[in-house]
Every structure is written in C-alpha cells, then in structure tokens.
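Section 3.1: Structural characterization of target chains.
Under the original work plan, the team committed to producing a structural model for every single-chain target entering the pipeline before any wet-lab resources were allocated. The record below documents one such target. The sequence was received from the expression subgroup and is listed exactly as submitted; it comprises 150 residues.
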Amino acid sequence: MSMLKEFKEFAMRGNVMDLAIGIIIGAAFSGLVNSVVNDLIMPLVGKAIGDMDFSNLYVALSADVPEGLALEEARKLGAVFAWGNFITVLLNFLILAFIIFMIIKGMNRLMRKKAAAPAVPPAPTKEEVLLTEMRDSLRQIATGQTAPRP
C-alpha cells in the first residue's frame, strides 16, 4: 500500500504535472508546425521550382523503381533517397526551433526586467522611527554625550 501512496505523491507533484501538460501542448504545437510547413510553405517552394510536390522528390536507388511514382509507391518497390521529404522535415525542425527560441528569448527578457527593477524598500513604520530615535539617544548617553532637549 505504501508503494501506491508513494506513486500517487510522485505523480501529483507539480513538476510531473507541468511536464505532462508541456508534452501534450508540444504534440499539438508540432502538428501546427507540420501543417504550416506542409500546407503553406512547401506548396510555395514547389510552385517556385516548377509545380511539383516537394515531399515527393527522391532519387531511386533501385532499378525496380520507375520514374514519376509518388514517394510512398516508390518506397514499396525499392530503396529511394527521399531528399525532398528530408528537406520538409528539416524545415519543420527549423521553424519549431525558431519559435521555441523566440519564446525563450521573450521569457528571458521578462526575467531580466524583473531582476533589473530594484525593489524599493518600504518606508519605516512609526514604531521603527521611534525605536531608532531611542537607540540613538541611548548611544549618546552611553558615550557620555548629552542629548539635546527639544
């Protein structure tokens, strides 16, 4: 029973829950980035290089693969060097890395602003002022000086 209790405490810690939420959001964000690359960027690149599907660009490494097949069909027939698909995945990575960089950069800027703003100490309370005056008076009496009378 104690092992179950230990596991429950571990699983319900804030860091574990934060990590789980981060992974879920990351997976959804990855789908968004894939869509941006596959549905927005790569069609523009394909149009720029002559109306072709960029992800289907490959070099056949087997004699059994005829030219002009889609990448998935070509893979079924033999080995292919799928450089177009690699470029698509590389663009996914670069866009995702850039977005994460911008998020971290923004967070660091906020943290620097928070650290750079010096905390203004609060004004002393009436009690603190009174105690300070009493301390100073006692110090003068102890050193043999007489405190001026108001």
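DSSP finds five helices and two strands in the chain.
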